[in-house]
Amino acid sequence: MPNFTLRPTFSIGGYAYPIYDRDIPDLWHGFAEEKGFEITARVRDKNHLVLRHEICGLEMVTKIFVLRTCVPACPHCLEMERRELCRAADVTYLGRGDRSHYLRIRLACGHETERQTELLHRVRQEQTAIRCAQCLNERLKREAAAREWSLIGDDPHGNLNYRLYRHDCGHVQRVAIANMRTGRFACGGCSDGWTRDPSYIYAMRFVLQDGTDAIKVGFSRDPHSRLRFQLTTERDQYAMLLRTIEIPTGRDAIRMEKDLHLTLRKLYPNAVLDRRVFASQVNCVSELYDSAIEAEIMSLLDALEVRVKGLVARRAKAAKAAADADRKTEPGTRSKRKSRKQRRGRFRPRGKMRR
Questions:
Q1: In what order do the strands lie in the sheet with 149-154?
Q2: 3-state secondary structure of 9
Q3: Do residues 36 and 67 lie in contact, with contact meaning Cβ atoms separated by under 8 Å?
Q4: 9 and 19 Cβ atoms separated by less than 8 Å
Q5: DSSP string, 196-247
Q6: pLDDT tens-digit profile of 16-33?
Q7: pLDDT beneath 70: ranges in the chain
Q8: What is the Cα–Cα distance from 251 to 9, expressed in whole angstroms?
Q9: 40-60 pLDDT per residue, tens
């Protein structure tokens, strides 16, 4: 039967270290006292010591070489510092990361990630914030779906400000994240450009800092995006979209907008606001009017809407007529249009005699 000799052990942090039963030189005690530690035992081999930190009162294992040449870092104090750092940065500490100087943390959204301690220090000082990669990816997917696109993945060119998207028509292209959010881009597969794509004539209301109500009239392919991302200068600025009129093409929209502004300046010259009134409050140089003529502007927009409906009807009729003409001119087809005699009833087909 084998004979096992059990050696006494020293437990630290859940680990059992075998005690190395040798004397501790007084010189080593002097090294430990100078650096804020107390030697309590020797473990493992001749090179390892157990130190008790005077600040936290907890024990650690280190080498005598480390104690002689530098100040040992207490792992318990480091762990408390990491927890305090994460608490100050409003994240949950989970442990050390897989890389040096990285910590495993849980964000406020519930997702887990790794971040550098230097970044967490800057977050604690409110110099920056932590962006969750999973939440960002989900947000990009929602923004793409709202514009009939789907997110494929990262930019193939490696630009962090771009992503690769697929349109509902099947076309794949790189789009800037900011442009996907604002809608200021066009599909390279199915779009003919802003001059041929549908557009809108809009009316917006702005309340300026001096209390003046201003009405802006213009055209845009996406009025909501223009209001939110281009015209407003502050996040909580009072601005709202009053009305939109869909125009068949951007070319028609810019022509109708110019005619509308020409009419307004001619009929109500005193209602045109000077740029100095709204400078630095609305990101435009003109096309703002006093709200005193809001009723007149809406009346002009009513007339414009009627004109647009007539324009759309005429173009649809012309397109239908052109399609019918194309079908008649196709090879192997015969025209079914009646002659003048057939329409007047004066023509008799061959083989039919009057009785």
A1: 149-154, 162-167, 172-176
A2: strand
A3: no
A4: yes
A5: TS-EEEEEEEEE-TTS-EEEEEEEES-HHHHIIIIIBSSTT--EEEEEEEEE
A6: 888 888 888 889 999 999
A7: 1-7, 329-355
A8: 87
A9: 889 888 899 999 999 988 899
Measured distance CA(256)–CA(250) in Å, rounded: 10
Tell me how far apart the alpha carbons of residues 220 and 197 are, in angstroms, rounded to a whole number. Answer: 11
Residue 19: strand, helix, or coil: strand
> Contact, 184 vs 225, CB < 8 A?
yes
Quick check: 173 and 187 in contact, CB under 8 A?
Answer: yes
CA distance 203 to 242: 5
DSSP state of 347: -
Q: What is the pLDDT of residue 4?
A: 46
Residue 69 backbone dihedrals phi, psi, to 5 degrees: -100, -20
**In the numeric block, which tokens belong to residue 289?**
């009017």
pTM: 0.60
Token pair 């390892």 in the structure block, residue: 48
H-type alpha helices, 268-293: 275-278
The Cα–Cα gap between 266 and 269 comes to 6
Q: Measured between alpha carbons, how far apart are the two ends of the chain, in Å?
A: 136
Two tokens, residue 19: 């005690």
List, as one string, the DSSP characters of 145-158: HHTTEEEEEE-TT-
